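Hi support team,

I submitted a single chain yesterday and got back a structure, but I'm not sure I'm reading the token output correctly. Could someone confirm the output below corresponds to the sequence I sent? I've pasted both exactly as they appear in my results page.

Thanks,
R.
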Amino acid sequence: MSSEKTVDMLEKPSLRDSLMFLIPSLIGIFLFMTPVSYGGDVTIPIAILAKGSLAQLDSLAVPLVTFLVVASAVLTLATKLFKPKAVLSSPFLHGLLNPSTLWSVTRVLGAVFILMAFFQVGPGLVHSEDTGGLVLNDLLPTLLCVFFFAGLLLPLLINFGLLELIGCLMTKLMRPLFNLPGRSAVTSFASWLGDGSVGVLMTSKQYEQGIFTEREAAVIGTTFTAVSITFSLVVISTVGLEAYFLPFYGTVCLAGLVAAVIVPRLPPLSRKRDVFIDGTPREKDDELVPAGESSLSFGYKQAIGRAKQVKSLGSVAREGVHNAADMILGVLPVVMAVGTVALVIAETTPLFNWLGAPFVPLLELLQIPEAVQASTTVMVGFADMFLPAIMAASIESDLTRFVIAALSVSQLIFLSETGSLMLGSKVPVKLWELFVIFVLRTLVVLPVIALMAHLIF
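Hi R., thanks for writing in. Yes, this is the structure output for that exact sequence:
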């Protein structure tokens, strides 16, 4: 697996080897991990590229994403029905256009929903501004641009040795606390500063490359693909408490840390296998620093060994194109299908109210004012993270609105985006597992958030 990158400890890297590691990695750090101020917000350059391209597309963004989702469904159906040799003989095209029956049906459903939303035909509950229209107009164009640039440029982060260096530096923290490789810190940092979808993409690609095991990919995808600082500010502003942003984000970070320690040690995450995508078990920690070596020197040697494996920049560019195509044609239809269904259920049925009812005693025990009204927002976040903040606007108590906002951000998994992304990616999680993890995270972080809210208000 990735342990093949180990180099001779006595070998001194050449200038070319060092530059092959340093230049792409520094560009990757700048694009994915460097906080910059843009439009009054703190974000990362890759997100700025996505926003800039979305602004350039303007009115073409929605028709373009509609075409791509429909094209994905049509090409998938054609592959299933006619089995063209050109597709089946290509590993990339075979993986892209010949998914399982379940995902093929999901792509077709996504295409049907997106056509209904685009042309405003069929049942209004599917294409309204609060359901399919929301996914099509507000979410998919942004994801299209994020997937394009993040997929294209992601090899700069993962192919040239940066993960190996960070892994060796961070393993002493990540292994004892979270039982994860040190390199998983890169994914968390990129999500925190940029977008959770970037974190899911990074996790999925590293799992496919044999860098993370099933358990590690599932834990990272459901635990460390945090909501960005920018979106957290939007949430706290929606509930009218933007003046409390610093204590709010501090509460979110504390709750997320507690959940990251506890939830992966519970089923279903604890039952995930520590095997790579090809079934090979993880036999040793390739980030373990040998005796007599410093973390920095060993990590640098590992990084140089990884950079040496790059055959040509052309192969890296092709991998970037494959990443982008895989996410755009493979995941966007899933987001449209699953996100629309989840929002229809949230908007037209009392299901999430029923699911939230058992939380009333817990909210009352935690002395949260307006507990009954607050309970209706607890589970609706599984459909979309922004819904609880919208529903909380009518609640009078500042403390309760604070708790709801912090909870919605800390729950992490929501089907209108990150949940659908994980289901559509190679990360080995099922829908019911996502729901159980969502509930566990809710139960773990709610007392932490309530305690902090009582200290603040």
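A quick pointer for reading it: Strands lie at 36-38, 41-43. Let us know if anything else looks off.

Best,
Support desk
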